[in-house]
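Hi P.,

Sorry for the delay on this. The queue was packed all week, but I finally got your sequence through. Input first:
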Amino acid sequence: MILGGILSPIENVLTDVLTWLHGTVGLPWAWAIVALTVMVRILLVPLAIRQIHSMQSLQMHAPEMKAIQQRYKSDRQKQSEELMKFYRENKINPYASCLPIVFQIPIFIALFYVLKDFEKEIFPQFQSSSLQWLNLVDITEPTKDGWGPVLLVVYVISQLTSTWLMSTQMQSTAQRVMIMVLPVVFIPFILNFPSGLMIYWLTTNLWTTGQGIVTRRLMPRPTAPPKRSSRTPPKEEDVPSVGDEPATTAATASGPPRRVRKKKKGGRPRR
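Then the structure:
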């Protein structure tokens, strides 16, 4: 109940948006949830772009970070300090990849409370409307009832697809396995969720899948900085100019340039 009180402002906003989409725009309740999901995802696009850039940067610099971890594997504190220093120098935010999920959690929970009391507080104002979606599920009934398990199957497929697109940006095999297993682990917990909440989650997964495909085509992978070696030619600023001290010293040591006298016609050259 405390959590519901904290999220009351978000609940009020979601309720107002849903009633506007249904009463003014004329969308059925289930499609109003779909439209609400699209609106939320559009607002989160800047965070999603930061997420993609962050994951690409982490993947690009993974060998260097692994080298730091190996170098300071016996000193965890020093390892953390050096990694944070590496993040600052390379302008990497390791937490940016979690931002879209973090911002969606309060919305998801608030929508759960909205749908929980939907038939008592909101639906009586629109008696002529229907709570059915595609004549299959009632948005206020648990997902396990009726045709809800069909939604559950589509959810698992969409969740695995969206998480697979995200996991390809990760270097750690353990992370990839964990993020692919989590959708299946959540199934027992979401069986009693309202079907409308499952529609929200399903729409989110489909959006994430489409967003991942589009961004893969439109956003090029950042190029890694060239590695310096002993054979790498020095940069222009490393090459001493004529006015620098080494060049002046070399010119002084070699002495003035020799003059070459031209031969006279018919004569012998002087020595």
